[in-house]
Amino acid sequence: MQYYKKESKLLVAVDCIIFGFNGETIDILLIKRGFEPEIGKWSLMGGFVQPDESPERSASRVLKELTGLENIFMDQCGVFGKPNRETGERVISIVYYALVDKQKYQNTQNDRYESQWFPLKEIPKLIFDHHDMIDQAIRELQSKAALYPILFKLLPEKFTIPQIATIYENVYQITFDKRNFSRKLNASGILIKLNEKDKENSKRGAYYFRINKDLYKEKVMSFIRHLPSWSIE
Amino acid sequence: MQYYKKESKLLVAVDCIIFGFNGETIDILLIKRGFEPEIGKWSLMGGFVQPDESPERSASRVLKELTGLENIFMDQCGVFGKPNRETGERVISIVYYALVDKQKYQNTQNDRYESQWFPLKEIPKLIFDHHDMIDQAIRELQSKAALYPILFKLLPEKFTIPQIATIYENVYQITFDKRNFSRKLNASGILIKLNEKDKENSKRGAYYFRINKDLYKEKVMSFIRHLPSWSIE
């Protein structure tokens, strides 16, 4: 292992971007940093990769520590490693995002980190390159969600079509024709309509749906067969 | 910086998946590893991240060392960091893929690394988790190419529609209806037809095209407006 010995070792950390949906906006969970440098400033939740753990395990550990949640969908979405990106010492940060159903999160406590949810458009000033990390995570969500129905992970088991539309509008920062969106989604067969309405958010009420897990994979594949979609007028 | 001092440092490397298109298949450039462990076995080209360079700079350096190419499209597509993934010492590897126009590559020499192109379906046995890295890069290509026209980077300035179709078929491992594909692509306005034909690959010849760079961005956006495409029958 002579070849390895002459190489420098580096500090490696993970930072977690935790997305949640509150019914109207997609929010990110931030903490107040508890140590120097930059103590007391808003930050993503992170931690160092330990000798006995993989980076994805570090990310799960960090998520659990902050939210109490386990077995949550997480995916790696970037590496930030410019030599001077932190003011303290050089740290290479591997960035993960998590998609959390906020209904499941509500019961946990996080006084220790002074954690708080912020809508995407109201993110406060963050330390280091954490804003760039969030931008990168959103780009990653946009490209993954074009191929896989991952955004449903932000929703509870039963949800309404206006809720899905709002999530897509938040992620792609555009406005849909709601009737058209609803018609296409219904026609796709990927959703199963329940005999129950959400009456809190409109007079008429909106039917609840759940994902048709049998069709899930097949429908994703049927999208691929239509590629390259970006070239279709 | 007391908090940082108690943390363990780790070896960090990059590995590069270099994709090229030879007209019929998408190929990957592999090398024979030049040091222990696993000396002489087929491997992706890699290198350690140096104290003064970002991981993306390491990846560009590694690509240039092997191919002589600079200013090539590269993107990070995964991190492999299980504590025992290498048999020597623990190394966290950040994986990048590059999309190379093989016409530009042909003039460079790589006797030093015994490098060789292999079609995706004929990859030899590789060291460590390098097969998983390639699988991950292909998934990343599939998802990025659903939103951005990055696959055109594998082509020279002028190219034919059958060439594009072959690239998409290789990446998604499916067979297109060629006439339909050609019709949609022509209708999209993203391509400009040249007054010149490739007569080497068919009797009738196939017209050469180039990308309409003015429309490029706009068309990508028009795709986004059709989301969620995966749900459309």
Description:
The structure is a homodimer of 233-residue chains. In chain A, the strands form 2 sheets. In chain A, strands 1, 2, 3, 4, 5, 6 and 7 form a 7-stranded mixed β-sheet that branches. A 3-stranded antiparallel β-sheet of chain A has the order 8-10-9. In chain A, strand 1 and strand 2 form a beta hairpin. Helix content of chain A is 31%, strand content 26%. Chain A is of the alpha+beta class and 233 residues long. The first copy, chain A, folds into 2 domains: 11-145, Nucleoside Triphosphate Pyrophosphohydrolase; 158-224, Arc Repressor Mutant, subunit A (Orthogonal Bundle). Chains A and B meet through helix 1, strand 5, strand 6, helix 4 and helix 6 of A and helix 1, strand 5, strand 6, helix 4 and helix 6 of B.
Quick tags:
Arc Repressor Mutant, subunit A, 2 domains, Nucleoside Triphosphate Pyrophosphohydrolase, 7 helices, 7-stranded mixed β-sheet, homodimer, 10 strands, disordered C terminus, 233 residues, 3-stranded antiparallel β-sheet, alpha+beta
What's this entry about, in short?
Two copies of one chain form a homodimer. Chain A has 233 residues and is an alpha+beta fold.
